[in-house]
Structure formats: C-alpha cells, structure tokens
Design brief:
InterPro entries: Helicase_ATP-bd, Helicase_C-like, P-loop_NTPase, SecA, SecA_Actinobact-type, SecA_CS, SecA_DEAD, SecA_motor_DEAD
CATH topology of the largest domain: Rossmann fold
Membrane topology: Peripheral membrane protein
EC number: 7.4.2.8
Main location: membrane
Strand order of the largest sheet: 3-4-2-5-13-1-14
CATH class of the largest domain: Alpha Beta
Bound molecules: adenosine-5'-triphosphate
Keywords: ATP-binding, Cell membrane, Cytoplasm, Membrane, Nucleotide-binding, Protein transport, Translocase, Translocation, Transport
Length: about 750
C-alpha cells in the first residue's frame, strides 16, 4: 500500500467506513466532560444505557465516547486520550484501527465492546492467546461493570457450563483458537443444551493483522481418536545417518529435499534390498517424510523439544505455538527423529480456518500496531478499511537506514561492534533475532566480549514480563526473538536513559514481512519517548535469495564488507515485497479453494440442524426400510422409532462429511498436477467437488436405511455403538500448519496415513 492510500485513511477521510466526521467530533466529546463528572456512578450507568436509545447516529457516538472516557477515568484511572477516542470511533464504524505500541489499544477495544453491547449487540473480543484474553477482561471489567455491560472470559480449561455462561454475556473475551474450537464443537452437538456459542455477531480482533492475514489460513481442527501406527523408528534412524550433498540435496530455497542416486542405493540396501521406486510407495513416502523432518525442519528454529514433546515455534511470534502440530505423519516423523514417543493422532472430524471463523461474524473490526502494509489484503479478503490513528504524543524515534553487508560474517561482526559500543554509554539495547538458535548464538558472542545479556525467547516466555520490565533500564542488553504483539510495553528507566537517547532497537536481519520489522522498531519510542532503530542485513540472508539481482553487489563492499549503496539497500525492501506478494498469492489461492468447501459445509450444517429439530430425512428412510419400520413401530411406538431415526441419520451425516472432507483435501492436492496443462485448477476443483457432493444426502439416507434394517430395536430405541455406529471415543482440538509446506509433503503424509 503506497503513501497515497495511507493518507486517504487518516481519520476524517471518506474512505474508511462511517468515519468522515470524527476529527470534528473531538471538541464535542470534550464539552460533555464537565457535566458527566458531576454524575454519580449509577447516573453514569444510566446515561450509558440511554446513549444509544435516546440518541442516534453521530450524536449517540459522541455521547457514548464522553461517557466511556469518564467511566475509564473513574474505574481504571485512565482518561481516554483523544487518540483513543478516535480509535473507538474507528472500531464502532467497523474498521481496523492502526495504533502504535503502547497507545492503549486494550482500553480502545473495551470501550468499543461496551458501545456495541449498549446497542443491543453481542460482542466477542478475540486475542491471540488465553493469557491476554483473561488479562484484558480482568483489567477492563470495572469499566464495563460501571457502564452496565456484562463480561466474561474463557480459556482452555473452561468447562461447558463456563463457556455457555461466558458466551451469553454481552462481551466475551477469548483466544481466537478457543472461539474456533467451540464453533467446531457446536457443529457436532446432538442436543440444544450442548450448544456453546448462541450467535456470532460482533467480533473485535486484537492484533488484527497477524490474525486476519498471517494466520488466516491456519486450520483449527477437531479430531476424533483413532489408532495409528507410530512412525517407523528404523527409517528415522536410517535417514538420520544420511549426509547432505552425498546422500541428499536440498533445493536452494530450502523448501524441497531429494535423495541422490547414492542416497537411493544406500537406503535400498539398508532396507534389505528393496526397490524404493518400485511398488512400495508407502515406504518411499515414509523415507521422504523422515528426510523432510531431518533436512528441512530444524530444531530450535521451527520447533523446540520441551517437556518430552515437540513444540512448534510460531513463525510470526517467535514463541511456542500453543496447541499447534504438524500434519500427523510429519509430526510423527519429527517425534521419531527426536527419539520421542508418538503423540496421539486421529481422524479429522471437521476444521475451520481462522479466516472462515472471522468472516462468519456479522460485523468485524479490530486493532493492531501494523495494519497499513496489509491494507489491500484486508480490503480484498474482509472488506475492511484501515484507519490510521496518530499517536497521542508525537513519535520521536529515529529509524536509521539499513546497514547492508556482503556476508553474514561481516554483518555479525559489525552488529556486535555496534552493540558493544552503544553498551559502553549505558544506553539500553534490544536486539531482535530471527530464531531461537540465533538468539542463543548472539548472546554467547556478546558474553565473550564481556557484555551481560538477558535472553528472551520461546524457550522461556514465563519470565517475559520480568525481562521486559528491565529492558528499558540503564546498561541492559536484551536479545529477543520476534515478540510481536501484546503485553510487551517497554518503559524507559527514567530521565538518565532518555538523555542517552532512549532505547536502541537493533534488528539482526529483516523479517519476511515489513510489519514484523515495524513491530520490533515499535518497541522503542513508545508514548513520545526518544529512541532509535537500526536493521542489519546481509546478502546472505534468506530473504535476499528472492532477489537474484542482489548478487551484482557482492563486489561493492568496503573493507568491513559494508555496502553503502542506495540501490542495493532498496533491494532489501524489494525482497520483502516479493515475499509479501507470494504470501498474498497463496492466501488468494486458499481463499478460492475454501469458498466452495465453505458453501457445502453450510448446506450440510443446515441439513443437520433440520434432521435434529424437524425430523428431516425420516420419510426418506421410511421409504427405503418400510416393512421393517412398520414392524418396529407397532412394537415400540412412533416416538422410539423417530428418535432412533434421528440418531442414525446424524451419525451417518457426520461420517459422510468426514469422508467428503478427506476427499476434498485429496482432490485439492492432486488438482494442480492434473490441470497443469489447460484447465484452471479452481474450476476443475469446483466441478469435481460438486459432482462428489451430489451424492451426499442420498448416501446418508442409504446408509441410514441399511443400518435401520439391520438394527435390533428395544424400548430404548437402537443402541448405536453396539451396531458399529461408534462416535470417536474422545475428541480433541489443535491447529495445523498446513501452509508452511508445499503439496509434496501433504501427499507423503496421506500415503503414510493410509498405510
Ligand atoms: N488513557 C490512558 N491514560 C493513562 N495510561 C494509559 C491510557 N491508556 C493506556 N494507558 C497505559 O498504557 C499502557 C499500554 O496500554 P496497552 O497495553 O493497552 O497498549 P497497546 O496499545 O495494547 O500496546 P501493545 O501494542 O504493546 O500491546 C498500559 O500501561 C496502560 O495502562
């Protein structure tokens, strides 16, 4: 998004939804203040209730803003700044608001939640994790109470009753994943009393860019237990003994790996003279998965081993991704590589992507520190506009030009020299690294130079608050992996540190996305503090592999290997735009595939609800199993038979959906290969999936009728499990990382699973 569109979406502009009047409204909000101060708490609550019933449109918003500001002042000791009032208007008009780090987005979100609730709407505030959902709700509850708005939060450990009560309150705080899992669980209920989320009305998304764009494609999965074979330990051991270049090659972009002919010979020999590329495609797939796990998935970069388990590291957050796992076969291969026990695995009952979840709400809005760079994507995928809110106090941070080096080693040397130099003055320094292993290496090198460092990485985020609290004090050097997002407010250690220039943020390399860079820079210069940021890059950095033309500059360095050349520096940003463009293209692709799946799922869910509530499908089954049903009805009565029919139909409908979902996944993976030539993949996919879906309901009726014919009735109806209609013994939920890998890996996974 260029400067032009950036300007367009300043508050007061026409393009953001409903936003044309807000700047001018600020004095009017301020005018209310003196009178509102005179009200008792009860009277203020009454005024809040009346704001939207006695007033309308612009006037209602202005009154409400005044009341919310007063409520926050009384209960939280935070009188909302003008910038926060503008943020509130942005959210109440259904936009994504961009406000810098430390500008107080938590309060803005809570005021907006109250504003929607007082208009009779139900609100969910979605955060990126349980901790933030709980913290924010607890923090904001006194204000919401005073405004007469009920609120609650849920987390992983909430019971069914907790959840139902929480979603029934006017404002519910939850992690995105928990809300998604509850939507999935609600799809499989057999009684109304099990339903968790009554409706999805307004959603306020915190860290909107990472949720709506970076994590949009992550599928949340509800799985049911099945038995699976553990990954083959013998193959893992064999593959572990292979050497790079001799036995296998890794592609230059690091995304593919293949055996060399020596590698093939060795594997074939060790597996007792089999022919790897012969008929036994399962062994080949298992070898490929093990090789993938060995060569392309790196410990301390992509995952950690923690408490005897493989824990994925979130790409965009540099932290342990809670509840996240790889597709089953790969997860098992990595567990085998680390010599760990294979964890549970199962059949996917249903899944929902973060994007599907969010777009299922009637109204979406959100806040984040970095949205402008994905403004076009937000418009394309969510029909959302970005509103940029100027900081409460002007930004004082200075962002330096990148320092570009030829080689990784020259970059590292310069980076360390800079840190040592700055540290001598006592200025606090925060260094952001790309991976856990980078952060550990850098910390070690700095210790060798006599610089004491505190390290913050995914291995230990329990001490995060404590480490961050110190990061702005004199003489502190902090090395951290990407810590995008919330709860990381770095306060300067007083006047002395301000005089040293405030916090210095150093990026040890650019991220794939400029937003992640900006989030790191944003740690310095909060609320008008002084600060500075510098990024160090080298032509060796993975990001720079995307721009082959960068190799022209390998001879352009000075004696320290630094390339002081504008054109070369511009290539860094170019590489980032290439990476971001690839991401959008993948997003668009997934989006198109998901459209149809979503439609079919909608039809199935409607059908399911009619089967459950209106007895739909009973006549269809009766038509097929007439004699049998007449017979049992005479013996046990209509009611018993109707209940048995409903249960049987629901069972087969759910099972048929699991099957259809697996078919669609297979189809989607294969489609690119089959349509290389002429047909467009999406069209071919649509055609075939529509064909397959045509038999969905007839199949459900047929299998149900067969089951009814064969079933033994008692006065209780039919004992479904005793007749082979067993639902999974347990279900559990997780996130997968489908999109990190190409379709190859998914194909291997499938083959191994089928084994
Ligand atoms: N109106 C206000 N008056 C005084 N203090 C405020 C006000 N609004 C927010 N704060 C304080 O500013 C700090 C940052 O608030 P908050 O964590 O909500 O910021 P944020 O925008 O979410 O930042 P980040 O992007 O780092 O999460 C908190 O300590 C909060 O108490």
């Amino acid at each position: 998004m260029g400067l032009f569109s950036k300007l367009l979406n300043r508050p007061g502009s026409q393009s953001a939804k409903g936003f044309a009047w807000t700047d001018a409204a600020l004095p009017q909000v301020a005018e209310l203040e003196a009178d509102l101060k005179l009200l008792s708490d009860d009277e203020l609550g009454e005024a809040a209730a009346a704001a939207f019933s006695d007033f309308a449109g612009r006037e209602a918003h202005i009154r409400f803003a005044g009341i919310a500001r007063e409520a926050a002042r009384r209960t939280l000791d935070e009188r909302a700044f003008d910038s926060q009032i503008l943020g509130l208007f942005g959210l109440l008009s259904g936009n994504v608001v961009e406000m810098a780090t430390g500008e107080g987005k938590t309060l803005v979100g809570a005021m907006a939640a109250a504003g929607y609730a007082l208009q009779g709407r139900t609100v969910q505030v979605l955060s990126v994790n349980d901790y933030l959902a709980g913290r924010d709700r607890e923090w904001m509850a006194p204000m919401l109470d005073l405004l007469g708005v009920t609120s609650a939060s849920i987390d992983q450990n909430s019971t069914l009753e907790n959840r139902q009560a929480a979603y029934a309150s006017e404002v519910c705080y939850a992690a995105v994943s928990e809300a998604g899992f509850d939507v999935l669980r609600d799809r499989f209920i057999t009684e109304d009393a099990e339903k968790r989320i009554p409706e999805r009305d307004v959603v306020i998304v915190d860290e909107a860019d990472s949720v709506l764009i970076d994590e949009a494609r992550v599928p949340l999965v509800l799985a049911g237990s099945t038995e699976i074979d553990p990954a083959d330990a013998k193959i893992a051991e064999l593959v572990d003994g292979l050497s790079k270049d001799e036995h296998y090659d890794v592609s230059p972009d690091g995304r593919a790996v293949s055996l060399t002919s020596d590698g093939i010979d060795l594997v074939e020999e060790k597996l007792g003279g089999i022919e790897l590329y012969g008929d036994d495609s399962e062994t080949l797939a298992a070898v490929n998965l093990a090789l993938y796990a060995k060569a392309l998935v790196h410990r301390d970069v992509d995952y950690l081993v923690h408490g005897g388990r493989v824990r994925l590291i979130s790409d965009s957050r540099g932290r342990i991704a809670q509840l996240q796992r790889w597709p089953d076969g790969l997860q098992a291969a990595i567990e085998a590589k680390e010599g760990l026990e294979t964890t549970e695995s199962g059949e996917i009952l249903d899944s929902i992507t973060v994007e599907e979840l969010i777009t299922s709400y009637r109204l979406i809005c959100g806040m984040t520190g970095t949205a402008v760079a994905v403004g076009d994507d937000l418009r394309e995928f969510y029909d959302l506009e970005v509103v940029v809110i100027e900081p409460n106090l002007p930004l004082q941070r200075v962002d330096e030009e990148d320092r570009l080096y030829i080689m990784e080693s020259s970059k590292e040397k310069a980076l360390i020299a800079e840190i040592v130099e700055q540290h001598k003055t006592g200025r606090p320094v925060l260094i952001g690294t790309r991976s856990v292993s980078d952060s550990e290496r850098l910390a070690e090198q700095l210790s060798e130079k006599g610089v004491a460092v505190q390290v913050l990485n995914a291995k230990d985020d329990s001490r995060e608050a404590e480490i961050i609290a110190r990061a702005g004090t004199k003489g502190t050097v902090t090395v951290s992996t990407q810590m995008a997002g919330r709860g990381t407010d770095i306060r300067l250690g007083g006047e002395e540190v301000a005089e040293l220039g405030g916090l210095l943020v150093i990026g040890a390399g650019r991220y794939q996305s400029s937003r992640l860079d900006d989030q790191l820079r944003g740690r310095a210069g909060r609320q008008g503090d002084p600060g500075r940021s510098i990024f160090f890059t080298s032509l060796d950095d993975e990001l720079m592999h995307r721009v082959p033309e960068a190799s022209r500059f390998v001879t352009a360095g000075d004696d320290k290997g630094r390339i002081d050349n504008r054109r070369a520096q511009a290539l860094v940003e170019h590489a980032q735009r290439v990476a971001e463009g690839e991401n959008t293209a993948i997003h668009r692709d997934t989006w198109r595939f998901n459209q149809l799946v979503q439609k079919q799922r909608g039809l199935v869910l409607e059908k399911r609800s009619r089967v459950r509530k209106d007895g739909e499908g009973q006549d269809d089954v009766r038509a097929k199993a007439k004699d049998r049903l007449v017979e049992v009805e005479a013996e046990f009565g209509e009611e018993v038979v109707a209940k048995a029919l409903t249960e049987t139909l629901l069972f087969h409908l759910d099972e048929r959906w699991v099957e259809h979902l697996a078919f669609l996944t297979d189809l989607r993976e294969g489609i690119h290969l089959r349509t290389l030539a002429r047909e467009r993949p999406h069209e071919a996919f649509n055609k075939e999936s529509i064909q397959a879906f045509a038999s969905f309901w007839p199949d459900v009726v047929d299998t149900s009728a067969e089951a009814i014919e064969a079933a033994e009735f008692t006065s209780e109806g039919v004992d479904l499990p005793a007749h082979g209609m067993k639902r999974p013994s347990s279900t559990w939920t997780y996130l997968t990382t489908e999109t990190t890998f190409g379709s190859d890996i998914e194909t291997f996974v499938k083959k191994v699973q089928r084994k």
